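Here is the promised in-class demo. Please do not try to memorize the tokens; focus on the logic of going from shape to residues.
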């Protein structure tokens, strides 16, 4: 049987430390059958059910006072299908383990986000994405899903089997059932050349369309209180592989990106007035560099400094205007923002509640270091983003509700109707799901 934590006072916290839950019980099923049995048992006990991955969401999307399902025993690759170029993986597998396992097989996902700590089901269910001109979110690379629904039955879905469920459940918010396995499209492993270089904020905005069009993967970080950005262009390469040397990697990724950054955050917290001066120094600390490596070593980077985040997807053509407004707001506000603003893109996809559903999108992510007050900054940023019919990332802080989502997602009613069918008794509901999807 699955191991069950003697539930009563176990406290669960997310990675950012801003969400706390006290489930009635925690369970760690070792098979899909055990998980289905736990869902049925929860129904008998009148308890809600939520599955939780690595807790990397900043919203309370996984919180519950009912049964908390931890999927860490549901890990590993089930099947590698080289003929159809797919890999089926258990839902609790962390992305970092999947990426390494695929690399050993000479395979890779086409695109991914910049953090590898999440489980595959947590990352896809919330719409985690990287940046790409043609290649979209992790969920857009899904070819099949296995889902335990509210009555404890196991549903498989793909474009051919239960296509309506497949359209929605790739980014299902945990509201349609518990994902137990995912089949991803993969390709033979390839090399990417990354070119990172500082660039003035005004130039990035003036040349944004060009930078987007000329690169397979373009993103940049703007340092508030400065006119500086750091840009990153990733493009496929014939090689040879020229990874960042261990020493340079330590200096740039650990010492500067994480170590000095952590110190800057401590100083900024203690003396907020110093933040603009620190930002000027930080924005100039990272020098230009070019390196070539396998995808996960280029797309992803370690994140040691804990933070809270809000991210909105805007229509791609609106992003430069929105960024100018964001900069003007920060400049006149008296806010002290010590964390860079991250900007990425994604092509339109066909997933019902994907932030890029039906429209080419650009993402603006604002962050504050854990332990500092974020509400004034995030509220002002959200005010700018929603004026452009922005769609917030499902796993990041926002204040929107079902009424708002019905106005910015043309297929919102499709999703809620499917939820009515699959979970009529709201077994998978919590406060967050009720707010974003309606009761």
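The designed amino acids, position by position:
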């Amino acid at each position: 049987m699955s191991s069950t934590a003697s539930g009563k006072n176990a406290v669960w916290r997310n990675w950012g430390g801003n969400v706390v839950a006290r489930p009635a019980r925690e369970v760690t099923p070792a098979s899909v059958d055990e998980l289905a049995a736990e869902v049925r048992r929860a129904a008998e006990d009148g308890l809600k059910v939520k599955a939780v991955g690595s807790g990397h969401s900043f919203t309370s999307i996984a919180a519950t006072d009912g049964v908390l399902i931890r999927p860490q025993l549901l890990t590993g690759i089930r099947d590698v299908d080289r003929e159809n170029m797919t890999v089926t993986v258990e839902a609790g597998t962390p992305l970092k383990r999947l990426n390494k396992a695929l690399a050993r097989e000479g395979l890779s996902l086409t695109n991914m986000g910049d953090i590898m700590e999440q489980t595959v089901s947590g990352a896809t269910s919330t719409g985690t994405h990287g940046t790409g001109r043609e290649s979209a979110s992790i969920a857009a690379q899904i070819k099949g899903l296995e889902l335990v629904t509210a009555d404890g039955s196991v549903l498989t879905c793909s474009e051919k089997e239960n296509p309506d469920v497949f359209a929605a459940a790739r980014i299902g918010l945990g509201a349609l059932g518990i994902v137990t396995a995912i089949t991803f499209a993969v390709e033979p492993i390839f090399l990417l050349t990354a070119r990172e270089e500082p660039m003035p904020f005004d130039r990035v905005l003036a040349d944004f369309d060009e930078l987007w069009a000329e690169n397979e993967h373009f993103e940049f970080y703007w340092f508030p209180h400065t006119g500086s950005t750091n840009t990153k262009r990733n493009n496929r390469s014939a090689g040879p592989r020229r990874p960042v040397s261990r020493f340079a990697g330590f200096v740039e990724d650990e010492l500067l990106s994480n170590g000095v950054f952590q110190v800057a955050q401590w100083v900024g917290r203690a003396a907020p007035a110093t933040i603009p001066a620190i930002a000027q120094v930080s924005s100039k600390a990272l020098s230009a560099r070019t390196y070539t490596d396998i995808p996960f070593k280029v797309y992803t980077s370690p994140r040691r400094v804990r933070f809270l985040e809000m991210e909105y997807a805007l229509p791609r053509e609106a992003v430069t205007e929105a960024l100018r407004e964001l900069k003007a707001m920060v400049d006149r506000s008296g806010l002290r923002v010590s964390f860079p603003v991250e900007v990425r893109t994604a092509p339109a996809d066909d997933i019902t509640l994907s932030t890029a559903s039906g429209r080419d999108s650009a993402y603006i992510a604002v962050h504050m270091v854990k332990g500092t007050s974020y509400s004034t900054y995030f509220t002002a940023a959200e005010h700018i983003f929603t004026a452009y019919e922005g769609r917030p990332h499902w796993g990041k802080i926002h204040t929107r509700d079902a009424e708002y989502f019905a106005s910015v997602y043309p297929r919102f009613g499709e999703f809620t109707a499917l939820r009515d069918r699959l979970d009529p008794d709201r077994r998978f509901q919590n406060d967050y799901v009720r707010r974003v999807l309606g009761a």
